[in-house]
Specification:
alpha/beta, 14 strands, 6-stranded parallel sheet, Rossmann fold, 2 domains, 8-stranded mixed sheet
Length: 372
């Protein structure tokens, strides 16, 4: 079996091929997860110049399609490359590129196409007839959780017979490390020591998280929350909310933006990872936390249910319900979360090898259906 992954979104023009991997870690992470199951994987990447890179046994074909004037012209170039490498199946990244994949199918009608969702949204109503046409012959579509397909099926973009797969968007290379060393290095402390990693925006709902922790403070030994964030349009509101909870004085630490390597140390130092997200495409911060052994206390949304095994690891709480978050934190703290238990779940279900097995099963199922 030879599977070709294709990325239609070109990287910044100033980046050489070797630099794109640092800019987009998922460019290698997802194909390497698939290849870990023994499948031959190649990657085709739209780019500003043509290059070929071999990395960890995977060939990356950077294709210059900048001179192609139409989607069908680009489709011809991609199809020629796919035909040359003798791909058996095409794995398309992103549901927003249905037209590009449809153009390839114009030239390679027998090549099955499997799409992977990357936090995509259904199109506006006037574009839905086009999307229905582009996705009519999709061999399958993968979401982190199958429930994430509902907006697409409800609008008729996908038909009820479209084959769906539930596969984590990616995995994570973080490790549990030494908690005591991580705390000494970062200065994190608390019982429980809680970490938040995410933008301070409405969709992440940091205000409900603050309210929930405030309600639980009196029932926790020595709670501390450490917040790493990038965009922060709600920072002023968050600070006002903190001022309204005097019991949280000195217990919530706003770290601001931190380097990605630093995030690993924060997660290694944490007892609990907390999130108030109302929606996610997958949940990279949750993956990182579980890779480090931090117990998740996260919202009850489809991708978080999928990643935590329907809450068998950690606790799920209803979006916006601060009281339920408080109860969940008290319950988890009383159980004294085991990092080994969290990491074991990660290894079994979310590691590169585990995700690779899921992709191998999906590929085999798609090709099995197309065999006749």
């Amino acid at each position: 079996m030879h599977v070709a992954h294709i990325n239609f979104l070109p990287p910044p023009k100033e980046l050489a091929a070797a630099d794109v991997f640092a800019h987009w870690p998922s460019l290698a992470d997802i194909p390497e997860a698939a290849a870990s199951s023994g499948i031959k994987v190649s990657v085709i990447q739209a780019a500003a110049r043509r290059e070929r890179v071999t990395r960890n046994g995977i060939d990356y074909h950077f294709m210059d399609v900048s001179k192609a004037k139409t989607v069908i012209d680009r489709g011809y170039q991609f199809a020629a490359q796919l035909d040359q490498i003798k791909a058996d199946l095409l794995h398309v990244h992103g549901l927003g590129f249905g037209e590009d994949a449809f153009a390839i199918s114009h030239y390679l009608p027998r090549l099955p196409v499997l799409f992977q969702d990357h936090a995509d949204r259904p199109p506006p109503w006037w574009r839905r007839p086009q999307w229905r046409r582009w996705y009519a012959n999709a061999a399958g579509i993968a979401f982190t959780a199958s429930e994430q397909a509902r907006p697409f099926t409800a609008t008729g973009v996908l038909t009820p017979r479209t084959q769906l797969f539930a596969i984590p968007e990616s995995s994570c290379r973080f490790t549990p490390g030494d908690r005591a060393a991580a705390r000494a290095e970062t200065g994190l402390h608390g019982d429980p020591c809680m970490v938040w990693v995410g933008h301070l925006i409405d969709r992440k709902d940091p205000l409900s998280v603050i309210d929930g922790i405030a309600q639980a403070t009196s029932q926790l030994p020595d709670p501390h929350l450490w917040c790493a964030f990038g965009d922060a349009p709600l920072l002023a509101q968050l600070q006002q909310r903190l001022a309204s909870h005097p019991q949280l004085a000195g217990r919530v630490h706003l770290l601001g933006k931190v380097p990605h390597a630093r995030v690993q140390r924060l997660m290694q130092a944490a007892d609990v990872f907390v999130s108030g997200s109302r929606s996610e495409g997958s949940g990279y911060a949750l993956l990182e936390a579980m890779a480090c052994g931090a117990m998740p206390v996260v919202t009850d949304i489809p991708p978080f249910r999928a990643l935590t095994g329907d809450g068998c690891i950690g606790a799920l709480w209803p979006c916006g319900n601060a009281a339920q978050l408080g109860h969940a934190l008290v319950r988890i703290a009383s159980q004294r979360p085991s990092r080994e238990q969290v990491r074991e779940h990660f290894d079994d279900h979310l590691s590169f090898e585990a995700v690779g097995r899921k992709w191998a099963g999906a590929y085999a199922q798609v090709l099995g259906r197309r065999a006749p």
